[in-house]
Design a protein that fits this description.
The protein is mainly beta. The chain has a domain of about 190 residues: Porin (Beta Barrel), CATH 2.40.160.20. It has 4 helices and 10 strands; from the N terminus they run αβββαββββββααβ. Strands 1-2-3-4-5-8-9-10 form an 8-stranded antiparallel beta barrel. A two-stranded antiparallel sheet has the order 6-7. Helix 3 crosses helix 4.
Length: about 290
């Protein structure tokens, strides 16, 4: 896994020896959309996120970006306004480690001296790792995937398999950037991730049979598959088999939003740190009054 992430980020460096190369940094928030988060896009229940990478110019308005990002996502039924979800009483958190390779297209050519601002869009492919966990009533941390809370791995549910913790996603989004000087750009972007799993939050389909889940996956799986019995005012019993637990029709998503910083480190002839252009030098165009 670490080797794959490193190759995805370092690829632009070897492929762009004669291109303008930039260091990129990201700081902002990460969040997710799924069965434990009612809103499609929100800063509620979000967590800090950071990232870094490289980009190079393929054409005046086109960049290729290789990046690493880290963030956290989570959701809690206690924050819901739906009575059914409040009674379900589930929650989760997960760290997200992501490596991505994307194309970035700007509306305007920022290489022109008169251009100080441009909107842009991006899309590509990413490899990410997640591992949802929660804390039980005693405060002990428990990773949910290995418990098979929806009957994954049981003969009674042959179509429910343990989900993979390393998967592909399709990142896409947009933003805008400002030119601080010829080699430095500051911006803001929102990037969504189209996933191919509904188990980012460990919730997808229906409740497994309590007796089968207890016999096959253990008491901890039953305890964390349904947590309505932990409610102090109105404790509930484990739901009957095939009662709706989540919505498998729509896959989960996660997303990043925040500030970006790009700093040029190589110019077109491969030299480190692009030299400043001085009036009267060969590289400097004549001043326009």
């Amino acid at each position: 896994m670490p080797r794959i992430l490193l190759l995805m980020v370092l690829f632009p460096l070897s492929a762009a020896a004669q291109q303008k190369l930039n260091l990129t940094f990201f700081g902002g928030f990460s969040n997710y959309s799924g069965d434990l988060q009612e809103k499609r896009f929100t800063l509620e229940q979000s967590h800090p996120a950071v990232g870094a990478g490289l980009s190079y110019e393929v054409a005046p308005k086109l960049l290729v970006r290789g990046e690493l990002k880290y963030g956290k996502v989570g959701g809690d039924d206690k924050r819901s306004t739906d009575t059914m979800l409040l009674h379900r009483n589930l929650n989760f958190r997960s760290q997200i480690f992501e490596a991505s390779l994307m194309g970035d297209f700007s509306l305007f050519d920022m290489g022109m001296r008169s251009r100080k601002f441009t909107p842009y869009i991006f899309a590509g492919v990413s490899l990410y790792r997640f591992n949802p966990y929660t804390y039980d009533a005693a405060g002990n941390k428990a990773f949910l995937r290995d418990l098979g809370t929806e009957g994954q791995g049981l003969p009674e549910y042959p179509d429910r398999h343990p989900y993979k913790l390393i998967q592909l996603a399709i990142p896409f989004g947009g933003g805008f950037r400002f030119k601080i000087n010829e080699n430095t750009y500051l911006g803001y972007e929102i990037g969504l991730r189209k996933l191919f799993t509904d188990y980012l939050d460990d919730v997808s389909t229906t409740y497994a049979d309590e007796a089968a889940l207890l016999a096959g996956n253990g008491a901890k799986a039953v305890e964390l598959a349904f947590r309505g019995d932990e409610l102090k005012d109105d404790p509930l019993s484990y739901p009957p088999r095939n009662t709706v637990r989540g919505g498998p029709k729509f896959k989960d998503w996660y997303y990043f939003s925040g500030i970006t910083l790009s700093i040029g480190i190589f110019n077109g002839d491969g030299k480190l740190f692009p030299k400043r252009m001085h009036k009267g030098s060969v590289d400097c165009p004549p001043s326009v009054l």
